[in-house]
Amino acid sequence: MRQDTRKHNMRDQSALKQDTEKQETGKMPNQSMLEQGLGQHQGLGRHEKKVRRMQTRTWSRSYVNDAGMTVSGPDPGSFPGNTAIPASERIIQEQGPDKVPMKEDAAGFFLPREAGAFLDQYANRRHYLRIPRGYTEKDPIVLNLHLTGENPDLVDDVVIEAEEDSQVTVLINYTSEEGQKVHHYGRTRILAHRNAHVKLVKAQVLGEMAVHTDSIGGIAEEGARLDVVLAEIGAKNPFSSCNLVLKGEGSEAELDAVYLGDGQRSLDMSYRVEHRGKKTLSRITAKGVLLERCRKTFRDTLDFISGAAGSRGREEENVLMLSPDVRNLSAPVMLCGEENVEGDHALSSGRLDEKILFYLMSRGLSEVEAKKLLAEAAVSSVVEKIPEESIQNRIKDQVRKAIEKGGQTA
Amino acid sequence: MAADRKAKEAEKLERQKAMLEEADRERFDFRDRDQSSFKTDKGLTPEIVTEISKMKNEPEWMLQHRLRSLEIYNRLPMPDWGPSLDELHMDDIVAYVRPNTDMKSDWNQVPGYIKDTFERLGIPQAEQKSLAGVGAQYDSEVVYHNIRDELSKQGVIYTDMETAVREHEDIVRKLFMKLVPPEEHKFVALHGAVWSGGSFVYVPEGVHLDFPLQSYFRLNAAGAGQFEHTLIVVEKGASVHFIEGCSAPGYNMLNLHAGCVELYVREGATLRYSTIENWSKNMMNLNTKRAVVEKNGTIEWISGTFGSHVTMLYPSSILKGEGARSTFTGISFSGKGQNLDTGTKVVHAAPNTYATMIPKATPNTYSTIHSRSISKDGGIAVYRSTVEILPQAVGSKSSAVCESLMMDSDSRSDTIPSLDIRTDESDVGHEAKVGRISDEAVFYLMARGLTEQEARAMIVRGFVEPISRELPLEYAVEMNRLINIELEGTIG
User: Fold this and answer.
1) CA A205, CA A146: separation in Å to the nearest integer?
2) Could you tell me if residue A289 is inside a domain?
3) Does residue A395 belong to any structural domain of this protein?
4) What is the spatial distance between Cα B53 and Cα B221, in angstroms, rounded to a whole number?
5) What's the Cα-to-Cα distance from A157 to each of A84, A94, A129, rounded to whole Å?
6) Is A363 among the domain residues?
7) Chain B partners of A303 at a C-beta cutoff of 8 Å?
């Protein structure tokens, strides 16, 4: 019987993959088409396709099952070549994750097969970081990726492998030149061996003309810990996914996300934690601010696989809506095939408390100033987890700017 | 006559003993020899649909509705989400089974074997004791309908759907399948084509019914589908409690239930709709229920799902008028071989609607409603919901609490909610929990002198208590009994 349950779960997962494979006939080019495109040396252009986002589908009228994914191909050599990231000598750096034997690709859960193959082949920034056994890198390893009019296409593929008992913090920061049409498509994969501790911070503060598609996958072995902090602040229609697999006994994951939506933008985020090992622990926390006419879709999933006895997971999303025309979609999913677990989720969505707003305004703040203060407070618990003050400030700036632009009462 | 009945009963019991393995279900698992006067061929054609319509002496518009629905049914695909329906072979399900009796208004005129069935289910006794009216459906036709005289004098109409189509055409024609159009999904289109039986309730303005109305549906013929249609109109300021109970005996063949419930709650009216479904474990229960609530009206759904092989049931509420409310209280208990996919939908379509879909259970809030599910022995319990707040629905509030109890690791318990919020002037909350019976609680109770089994049973009863206390007494008793049966041998 136990096997049956597992089968059921597997079916769900493989269904997700099959489905994405089925859509190969969509707009996204297959391998041979890509090669043709490359042969003509016209760049690979932008490709869009509908991809499945829910592990278990639900009503089509709920508008959460699928989403459009954009992949943009780089002109060969369009991004400054692979360079070493400033880090201590003990960190082993190589250029090309293709050398890493990935037994299991957690990022592939949300990433259609051909989209992954595209990355394998055309990434123009490749980093492989290995943290040696027992070593603790004290300062964060920072990777600043700035897209400009001259270098508008970035396809990055980063792998972080933390060996037993090692510790590292990696910060990847995406920015772009204001007013430039730039494309980012990337993948980051983490493999945390026994008792390793990896903190990954990805701050996306791209300009409003940027296309951003991002995918993260993490695997935690026995006793390992993954801390992932994701900030989706800029870009036109940010599209991101993160799948963390708690494979080993006693492994832990903490996923903090912050997002900002304004103007006519559309945000699409799919985050998932899979509890596979015994006594695994996870927490997903998302804080968001939505303004003007933006649309946001946030899916978070806790998946307790049969056998993950003694595991606990919690997910939480708090959304602050500051304009009457925002569209706020959420799908907080919890899947459970194991009896001995505790799963919890909570979602709250609403506008600012009028009493607090009134109080602040009676103290002399304008409505916009008061809203800024409260919105900043709403996201600060996540923003403060970013170990770089300049990025923190940048995010807070963006939130303030967005409220100045669209935070007036309609 | 009495001897004949006794002999028949003995025969039935004998057969039941031989054929049924699930001894605990015996109250529901008795069945009669197939004595139907009329059976359509397997499969579905426009001819069959026309025949059904003709048999029922229906007006032309209803025939046209059936034919249009059939056409939609043939066109629509199977749903691409939810539990697998691969086992369902539509062509094998007999669309229409009519028992060889016409509707009777005196219980004594109902044929013996049908009466036996209902007596064993406790319907007439319940009617005498506490119910304002009873409508019982045996296979596809309503065989017994009665309503207390005083209610009729107040203008309350409570009759079977066929009669309503003929005699209350002015009301029915405007409303029939307008709230749940056949285009909605494949099974509701099928329902539109072959619907048969069901209840029609009309409560005039300002009338309050102190006793609940009750309909009990039962499927008897093997492989028969049941497609009853329930239409309830509660006029301005009126109130009523409607109880629907369902069960079917266990056959080896797969049965289909694709009913449709349309509820119209007018300004300031209140409707409570309670259901306990205990279909046999070969039933595909693909039921559609929807209410539209006008200004300051209230719909209260009480929904218990115990039986069936596969259930897809999501009572939905459209809060159309200002100040409309909906509450949903649901419980499902999924055992071996069962996949119960249940939940609810709420659409906030008007300014200032307030949906306590499943509000918090904490003492300082005033709502006391929950969705709870239990899964055991490899059963799959899915809670699926959607809350939609349309842009004009400013000032809406919605809260949901959903709790799942896992009895073992062979089972599954999934929570798949989605929320679509389109205005900032709303407060929306959703909470869900999944877990098992805590060892500490069992230990505590055992320290107080209970055996482990007693302790666990007590905790499960406590878990469902917020639901059972919302039910009328006889249903609460039935639910507790069902839970005791379901729990036996699985814990301790």
Assistant:
1) 10
2) yes
3) no
4) 21
5) 14, 12, 11
6) no
7) none
What are the structure tokens assigned to A296, written together?
């946001």
Query: For residue A382, what are the contacts with CB-CB under 8 A and spacing of at least 6?
Result: A229, A231, A256, A257, A258, A285, A286, A287
pTM here is: 0.83
Do B303 and B443 fall into the same domain? no
Q: Which helix (H) or strand (E) holds B443?
A: helix B439-447
More confident: A301 or B122: A301
Mean residue pLDDT of chain B comes to 77
User: In which domain, by residue range, is A335 found?
Assistant: 2-351
Q: Which structure tokens are listed for A28?
A: 């996204």
Whether A62 sits inside 8 A of B404 (CB atoms) is no
DSSP B194-210: H----EEEEE-TT-B-S
Q: Would you state the pLDDT for residue A14?
A: 40
Q: Is the pLDDT of residue B388 over 90?
A: no
How many Å apart are CA B83 and CA B445, to the nearest integer? 38
Q: Are strands A153-162 and A66-73 parallel, antiparallel or unpaired?
A: unpaired
Partners of B245 in the beta sheet? B216, B276
Least confident of A84-88, A104-108, A123-127, B260-264: A84-88
What pLDDT shows up at residue B89? 74
B482 is in which domain, residue-wise? 438-492
Nearest beta carbon to residue A347 from set B404, B419, B434: B419
Place B69 in a pLDDT band, splitting at 50, 70 and 90: very high
- DSSP β-bridge partners for residue B380: B339, B412
Chain B, window 134-163: residues with a beta carbon less than 8 angstroms from a chain A beta carbon:
none
CA distances from B183 to A88, A166, B65, B77 (A): 64, 59, 12, 11
Nearest by Cα to B329 from B463, B217, B468: B468
User: What is the pLDDT, as a whole number, of residue B117?
Assistant: 58
| Residues of B whose CB is below 8 A from A58 | 81-82, 384, 386, 416, 418
B267 and B297 Cβ atoms separated by less than 8 Å: yes
Please identify, among B313, B341, B364, the residue that sits at the C-terminal boundary of a domain: B313
**Sign of the alpha-carbon dihedral angle for B464, B466, B467, B469:** positive
- Mean pLDDT over B160-185 rounds to 92
Residues of chain A with pLDDT > 90: what percent? Answer: 55
Domain C-terminal end among B313, B345, B371: B313
How many structural domains compose chain A? Answer: 1
Does residue B426 sit within a domain?
A: no
Q: A83 by DSSP, 3-state: which? A: coil
Burial A204-215 (b: 16+ CB within 10 A, else e): bbbbebbbbbbb
- Looking at beta carbons, which residues of chain B come within 8 Å of A324? 391, 394, 423-425
Question: Which residue is it, tokens 């102190």?
Answer: B210
pLDDT at B104: 52
Q: How many domains does chain B have?
A: 2
What average pLDDT does this structure show over A84-88?
Answer: 81
Let me know: does B328 contact B298? Beta carbons within 8 Å: no
Contact between chains at B430 and A327 (C-beta distance less than 8 A): no
Could you give the dihedral angle defined by the CA atoms of residues A185, A59, B322 and A353, in that order, rounded to the nearest 10 degrees? -40
Q: Chain B partners of A338 at a C-beta cutoff of 8 Å? A: 406, 409
First to last CA, chain B: 48
Q: Average of pLDDT values for A39-57?
A: 70
Q: What's the confidence (pLDDT) of residue A36?
A: 39
| A194 compared with B297, residue with greater pLDDT | A194
The stretch A56-84 carries a mean pLDDT of 78
Minimum Cα–Cα distance from B427: chain A residue: A350
- H-helix or E-strand spanning residue B175: helix B169-175
The pLDDT confidence band at residue B271, using thresholds 50, 70 and 90, is very high
Q: Read off the pLDDT of each residue in B399-417 and give the average, rounded to a whole number.
A: 90
Instruction: Kindly state whether residue A258 falls inside one of the protein's structural domains.
Output: yes
| B200 has a pLDDT exceeding 50 | yes
